[in-house]
């Protein structure tokens, strides 16, 4: 599968080139709620509505892959009531939207470590993946219990075991071999990664895969995300000159 971005369709005439794979760091739910004088959990609830708008945009513009940073491996250090609220919202989001995903041909994949997750969370993951496994449109990757360094460490551990088992020699290990051990195996790298709330960092998201991604940061908090912001982000992306370490022709 090529890493070149997809050409825009007739439904999106404003853009000569669209990203095939978009990564999204959905940041600012809590700060949005605080600014509104609301509890932080209300920010997460509003963030789920913004996520629905994001998926609708990705379907409309025929994006192939959308990877969202929903819950990092570091988020477990947050207060227990906030964690429970986030997990509850995620469960309700999947339960209520799964039929819509199927109707719009959206396949759901969960990226991240599954060891140590509760039975209820694992059942939720398996349900989302199994019910949409036949879908061939947008692939929605939900990075859950995910960390970029953790992902690379898992890949290295798996390769080390393969070497110990005699399945591969150290000399055979190159970038393509490592990529097949990542959670995103057989997917193109993201062309575009954007983040809300004015923060300008990756925060341990898709560290390997983002080597040549274009980055866009906007000041609005995640609950404020809408189609206009999405189109503004595509405008920014379409104006970039991507050289992948080379020079412009």
Topology:
Blueprint: E1 21-25, H1 29-35, H2 40-60, E2 65-72, H3 80-103, E3 107-111, H4 119-131, E4 139-146, H5 148-164, H6 175-179, E5 192-195, E6 214-217, H7 227-238
Parallel strand pairs: 1-2, 1-5, 2-4, 3-4, 5-6
Helix pairs in contact: 1-2, 2-3, 3-4
Keywords:
Undecaprenyl pyrophosphate synthetase, single chain, 6 strands, alpha/beta, 249 residues, globular
CATH superfamily: Decaprenyl diphosphate synthase-like
Give the oligomer, counting copies of the same chain as homo and different chains as hetero: single chain
CATH fold group: Undecaprenyl pyrophosphate synthetase
- What percent strand? 5-15%
The structural domain count equals 1
- Spell the H/E element sequence: EHHEHEHEHHEEH
- The helix content, as a percent range, equals 25-40%
Low-confidence stretches: 6-10
Tally of individual helices: 7
Radius of gyration, whole Å:
18 Å
Strand order of the largest sheet: 3-4-2-1-5-6
Q: Which whole number gives the mean pLDDT?
A: 90
The assigned structural class equals alpha/beta
CATH level-two architecture: 3-Layer(aba) Sandwich
Regarding CATH, which class? Alpha Beta
Characterization of the model:
With 249 residues, this protein is an alpha/beta fold. The chain has a single domain (21-147, 189-236), classed as Undecaprenyl pyrophosphate synthetase (3-Layer(aba) Sandwich), CATH 3.40.1180. 40% of the residues lie in helices and 14% in strands. It has a six-stranded parallel sheet with strand order 3-4-2-1-5-6, with helices on both faces. The longest helix has 24 residues, at 80-103. Mean pLDDT is 90; it is low at 6-10.
């Amino acid at each position: 599968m090529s890493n070149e971005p997809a050409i825009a369709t007739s439904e999106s005439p404003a853009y000569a080139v669209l990203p095939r794979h978009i990564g999204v760091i959905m940041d600012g739910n809590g700060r949005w709620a605080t600014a509104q004088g609301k509890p932080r959990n209300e920010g997460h609830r509003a963030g789920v509505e913004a996520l629905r708008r994001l998926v609708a945009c990705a379907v409309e513009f025929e994006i192939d892959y959308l990877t969202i940073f929903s819950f990092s491996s570091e988020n477990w250090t947050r207060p227990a009531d906030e964690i429970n609220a986030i997990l509850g919202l995620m469960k309700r989001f999947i339960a209520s939207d799964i039929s819509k995903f199927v109707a719009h041909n959206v396949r759901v994949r969960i990226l991240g470590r599954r060891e140590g997750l509760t039975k209820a969370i694992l059942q939720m993951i398996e349900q989302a993946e199994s019910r949409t496994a036949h879908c061939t449109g947008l692939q929605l990757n939900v990075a859950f219990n995910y960390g970029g360094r953790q992902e690379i460490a898992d890949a290295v551990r798996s390769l080390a075991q393969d070497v110990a088992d005699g399945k591969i020699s150290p000399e055979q290990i190159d970038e393509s071999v490592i990529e097949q051990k990542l959670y995103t195996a057989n997917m193109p790298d993201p062309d575009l990664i954007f983040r809300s709330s004015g923060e300008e960092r990756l925060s341990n998201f898709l560290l390997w895969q983002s080597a040549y991604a274009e980055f866009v940061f906007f000041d609005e908090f995640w609950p404020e995300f809408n189609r206009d912001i999405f189109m503004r982000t595509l405008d920014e992306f379409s104006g970039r000159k991507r050289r992948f370490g080379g020079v412009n022709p």
